[in-house]
Specification:
The protein contains 18 helices and 8 strands. Strands 1-2-3-4-5-6-7-8 form an 8-stranded parallel sheet. The chain is of the alpha/beta class. The protein has a single domain, classed as Alpha-Beta Barrel (TIM Barrel). It binds zinc ion. The site of zinc ion has 6 residues, from strand 1. Zinc ion binds next to strand 1.
């Protein structure tokens, strides 16, 4: 679908690709393409439930968030060694670079690995190798956000954070924040108040998924109880006018992911997505890929699909890209340096 879209409007695709962009909402495990799943399975002598890459890709017919999560966790079972984490991360960073991403803030679901007895030291080491290579060879900076699984108890997240803290000094140039993801409904933000209080006291930047399948109330909870600086998704904010007014007034970035929302049934049709409406009301909307290998598109595909479905103008696309940089955790100095190297087009 997205390939057809880019052929349908190659000029717009080139324009979007050339915009300097930050990707603020991507799960590294969600960038694992079926070809890599098969490669790692072979290397690690793991038997997959699918005969071929095609079979696996055909299984990506999701009906809701849970149906996606089931296959997402099954796929990442092939990740075993530092080399696997390095190759997965490097594949994403190369792809992001080709899409004009100049800075990426990448989430990793720590517990999805520690629960399989893969130590975080292996995960971080592999990812860091690729992230440093991207910085040195591609000029692409990136940060790591340790994201916790909200369908597990808060104590499990706290244990994972403790394990990760042993790595903090070693990866202080990369690991800047914490996040909250996975099954949203029934797992409200306030379940993780102690975790976020602790992480914030340690100086971590805080984000959380909210208002994807969950209600606007979860967005309010993420802001009030977890005191996050960004909301991942935030689609439901429009159902609460007071909350929306606050999100606009405080310019809280929303890291929206149109193709993900389409594939998981958050919207039935992209033309119903509220990214453009929220942007035009003054919200700090950004566009991202979430789990691109599973949802049919990387960041340019998401920009392009949204631009076509929502009639976003070039000026609005520039505004979204600018929001992604201002909504990032880069220092003002680092952001300015990036913009000097990658200036925005004048519309
Ligand atoms: Zn996500």
């Amino acid at each position: 679908m997205t390939a057809l879209d880019s052929h349908a409007n190659p000029e717009l695709a080139v324009f979007i690709r050339r915009l300097p962009k930050a990707e603020l909402h991507v799960h590294i495990e969600g960038t694992l393409e079926p070809e890599l799943i098969f490669k790692f399975a072979r290397r690690n002598q793991i038997t997959l439930a699918y005969e071929s890459v095609e079979d696996l890709r055909n299984a990506y017919a999701f009906t809701n968030l849970q149906s996606f999560l089931d296959i997402y966790y099954a796929g990442m079972a092939v990740l075993q060694t530092q080399q696997d984490y390095r190759e997965m991360t490097w594949a994403y960073l190369q792809r992001a670079h080709a899409d004009g991403v100049v800075h990426a803030e990448i989430m990793v679901d720590g517990q999805a690995h520690t629960h399989r007895d893969i130590p975080l030291s292996t995960v971080f080491a592999g990812m860091a190798e690729a992230m440093h290579q991207a910085r040195d060879e591609l000029g692409l900076s990136s940060y790591l956000i340790l994201s916790f699984l909200r369908d597990f108890p808060e104590d499990d997240a706290l244990d994972t954070l403790e394990e990760a803290l042993a790595l903090r000094v070693q990866y202080q140039d990369l690991w800047v924040g914490v996040g909250l993801s996975s099954a949203e409904l029934g797992n409200p933000p306030e379940k993780f108040t102690r975790l976020y209080d602790y992480a914030r006291s340690l100086g971590f930047r805080c984000v959380a998924h909210a208002g994807e399948e969950g209600p606007a109330e979860y967005i309010r909870g993420a802001l009030d109880d977890l005191k996050v600086e960004r909301i991942d998704h935030g689609v439901a904010c429009e159902h609460d006018p007071t909350l929306l007014e606050r999100i606009i007034r405080e310019q809280i970035p929303l890291t929206m992911c149109p193709l993900s929302n389409l594939r998981l049934g958050v919207v039935d049709n992209l033309s119903q997505h509220n990214a453009a409406k929220l942007l035009r009301q003054g919200a700090c909307v950004t566009i991202n890929s979430d789990d691109p290998s599973y949802f049919g598109g990387y960041i340019v595909d998401n920009y392009l699909a949204a631009a076509q479905a929502l009639q976003l103008s070039k000026a609005e696309l520039v505004e979204i890209a600018k929001n992604s940089l201002s909504g990032s955790f880069l220092s003002l100095h680092a952001r300015q340096a990036l913009l000097e190297r990658h200036p925005f087009p004048v519309i």
